[in-house]
């Protein structure tokens, strides 16, 4: 018996992953100026999913350092800003948890400054904050980071342009076709209305899926506010037979 | 069914979070038969994209995969098969790897190929292409994906060139010689 939802190998015609382009932004979005020269103009060619597309690298514990999921403890002192816990579950669109998958995050500091040579926004760097985290989801697809709430920052896209506070997320999933890079936002950010990356997602319900929920139940007294953000990757095209748990 | 999470750009500062010291090594530097795949990522004005990221995923030399569903599927022990390289100031990238074997396809084996993802500021979604090898003319002529591309000039964008230390594979996001990208 293979694990739940497993691709058992040995077939030349594996089941693919649902094409769900409707929820994603278009490659060409004039409001986000940098897309103009960076989107393919020819129609994409259909690629039926074969073995290379339904498999993905095994990136395990050896990818991680001990403090990789706690961005507040990677330096000698505490970083500036509001300490937060960001946690959630990674599932596919069929509802199946995605266990043991690598999540990488990167973000600005509390003043909205990235630790990057090209970021010249005149807000100070924080000597105690790099802004990088990594973790693996557990057996139930759950993940958890401790970090600080990033600040908003200005950029040059349009007049008086500001990015809403966000954390970049990268996920591998269990198939090359499931690979996802996205951004997590915070509830009721007043900057959404003018942000082209936010507005590039055509469906308002899909946009809202990028917003974490304030999570009072997991907020830790005298320590950190908590946010919950669940992430849903593409699911498989066919319903896989699931044995009934606790049967017979 | 629940709705999937939309994609967003990696932004200009992906180097903070998405670079690994050994990222470019899909196989160890000492791997027998290892070679470099080198190329340049350019935009629609034929300018180098210096804030991009290339990822590669491929079968091992025997055409097998060690992956989340079939960890026993690789005949080559500890074959990572995954490469990741940020682009440099001239849009250049390089991944060190071995040639993949022939992977089963819907009607017989596919030609040796490497799946390639491209991420960058200004790209709200990644794009995906495939690299094929110039020294596999017969396998390429029968490959189920390559043969879908009927325009020879477009098909040529998927076949690497040769280089002193391996292969050359430039990726053009837009323009006259725009690389073929796939809807996956």
TrEMBL record, chain A:
Q: Please, one GO biological process term?
A: 3,4-dihydroxybenzoate catabolic process
Answer whether the UniProt record assigns the keyword Oxidoreductase to this protein: yes
Q: Disordered: where is this region?
A: 1-20
DNA damage: present as a keyword of the record?
A: no
List the GO molecular function terms.
Answer: ferric iron binding; protocatechuate 3,4-dioxygenase activity
Limits of the Intradiol ring-cleavage dioxygenases domain: 86-114
Key words, A-Z: Dioxygenase, Oxidoreductase
Report which superkingdom the organism of origin falls in: Bacteria
State the family named in the UniProt similarity comment for this chain: Belongs to the intradiol ring-cleavage dioxygenase family.
- Protein name (database record): Protocatechuate 3,4-dioxygenase beta subunit
What is the scientific name of the source organism?
A: Haloactinospora alba
Automatic annotation (TrEMBL), chain B:
Q: Where is the Intradiol ring-cleavage dioxygenases domain?
A: 37-175
Q: Which family does it belong to?
A: Belongs to the intradiol ring-cleavage dioxygenase family.
**Sorted UniProt keywords:** Dioxygenase, Oxidoreductase
Q: Which Pfam families match?
A: Dioxygenase_C (PF00775)
Q: Specify the species.
A: Haloactinospora alba
Q: What are the protein's GO molecular function terms?
A: ferric iron binding; protocatechuate 3,4-dioxygenase activity
Protein known as? Protocatechuate 3,4-dioxygenase alpha subunit
